[in-house]
Amino acid sequence: MTTTYAALLRGINVGGKNKVPMAELRSVLTGLGYENVRTLLQSGNAVFAAPDHRDPGRLAAEVEQALAEWFGFPVAVVVRTAGELRAAVAANPFPDPAAEPAKHTVTFLAGRADPEQLDAVDPALYAPDEYRLADGGRELYAYFPNGQGRSRLAPFLDKRKLGVEATTRNWSTVTKLLALAES
Fold it and tell me: Taking the model in full, what pTM does it have?
C-alpha cells in the first residue's frame, strides 16, 4: 500500500539561483525509492507515492538531504499528504479564491506557526492585504487585493517571521497540485 505526497521546495529557480531542473528533481525522488513521481511547473512542486503512511516531516528531511547531496546547496522542503493538501484547499477561509487565484496564496509551514509571533503582529499594518492562520496552524492563507508585487504582507510569510520553515504557492498552483496528487 502506498500514500501519495506533495513536496513543495522553497527558493529554487528564482532569479537564476539554486537551479533545480524538474527532470533532476524527479531523478532524486525516484532514487529515494518513491514511485509515480511527477512535477508541476518549474518552481519545485512534486507529487510521489511512498510505501505505507510515512511521517511527512521525515520525508521532507529525507528529500532535503538528497537534494543537498545532488545539487550541493540546501533546499527547504515541506511535505503534505494528498489528504492534507485536500484539507488545506477545503479550509481556505476567503470567499471564492478561484475567482482571483493569483491574489490568493497558501503558505505551507513545516510545523505549527509560533502563535506569539503572529499575536505580536497588527494586521492593520498590512491592509488591504489579509491573512488567516488555519486551524492547526500549519497553513497560512493570504489575500492580496492589489497583487503581491508591492505588498508589505508578502515578505512576512517566511521562516524568520513565522518561526518555522515556510513556502508559499498561489491558489492556482495549489489546486493544480491537488489535482495532480489525486490523478
Answer: 0.93
